[in-house]
Amino acid sequence: MQSVSCKAGLVILLSLAVALATQLVVSEPVRQKILDNLEVQEGEDITTIRISLTSPVRYIRHFPSDSGEELRIRIRLFDVSRDNRDALSRREALVPFEAGDLPLDEVVYEDDLDTDGPYLTLFFSQSVDYSVQQGTDSRSIVVFTRKPAMDKPVQPVPGPDAE
Hints:
The protein is of the alpha+beta class.
């Protein structure tokens, strides 16, 4: 009697294993993508925009050099996983969830096959001053924007008669 119970348990266990294996084989793959995350941190004078990618990235150059409504950043990707290789030639976009006072509308990844490779493009709703650098984690690009002078609180200047 105990051997029948043991065989029944083994059959049930084997059936569950086959069902699980079948589910894994037919399940949809993880969405292929290059852009992973967009993080915006506002400071008093500087706002930091961190663009994280799913693969190691190297910052090459950017244009225009220090200000504008559109910032194009030339990058090079390394060790792109097999799951994400098809995404290399697609256009992807991230929109900041909450960008506070930052006029950032969208960050776009696209591979420009006619020129020299992939770009990140940041679109702003107004001209901003910025600088760009490689992230310290090797999977991100960091953009620093300076808040316009008119947005900063103005401190009154005491007149010559003030004590």
